[in-house]
């Protein structure tokens, strides 16, 4: 398969494959290497966390059901330190599992059994989004106490004597960045989905899960009444009377 966009760049991309089923792990490993990626393997959650902490990893393919620490625990641990893109592998073809993956901080998900070419397509799509974001010119966007750096993909709460880094997923970052560029504008769920959600995630109500998680993170730092639900339409950033 292989996308020409990555033909020269992806050889340096290192993928951590976390899968305790050796046969599945071997299939993913072989297809990634055939498409020019470097691969590191882990077979349990503890090992995955240790590798992620010690090595430069460009993307993680993470199974949900793992020994020692499960995939959700590994994902939570990764999100406490880095914004490494994560694609979850799940054997449960259930909507709740997909929503949970995105809510906790996954950038995409693939349901088993899968076509190995789908894995490659998802990896390339997630890396493409990440690459475009990191190569964009640095821009600082501010709204109220929020400060966004589009080069480092960082969002801070700036207070009088402190600057606090928010622990956001890539999707949450894209939502707050998009909305902060047009405060008070009402964004429909379709707009947010098309601009901010992973490829193939066609559930508009999944937007609600991302917004809810983002709102809680903001409120944890006393940033209230920021993400406003406009009934029957979508969401806006800030109240109209703040203009």
In words, what does this structure look like?
By secondary structure, the protein is an alpha/beta fold. It has 2 domains: 4-134, Rossmann fold (3-Layer(aba) Sandwich), CATH 3.40.50.2300; 136-242, Arc Repressor Mutant, subunit A (Orthogonal Bundle). 40% of the residues lie in helices and 22% in strands. The protein is built from 8 helices and 12 strands. The chain has a 5-stranded parallel sheet, sandwiched between helices. It has a 4-stranded antiparallel sheet with strand order 6-7-8-9, with helices on one face. A 3-stranded antiparallel sheet has the order 10-12-11. The protein is globular.
Which range does the strand content fall in? 15-25%
Q: What class would the helix/strand composition place it in?
A: alpha/beta
Query: Please, what is the oligomeric state?
Result: single chain
> Can you tell me the CATH class of the largest domain?
Alpha Beta
Give the overall pLDDT as a whole number. 83
What would CATH call the homologous superfamily of the largest domain?
Response regulator
Quote the distance from N terminus to C terminus.
Answer: 51 Å
Can you tell me the CATH architecture of the largest domain?
3-Layer(aba) Sandwich
Secondary structure tally, helices: 8
Q: Widest sheet: strand order?
A: 2-1-3-4-5
Q: How many structural domains?
A: 2
The rough form would be described as globular
Biggest sheet, open or closed, and with what strands and sense?
5 strands, parallel
Share of residues in helices: 25-40%
Q: Please give the number of β-strands.
A: 12
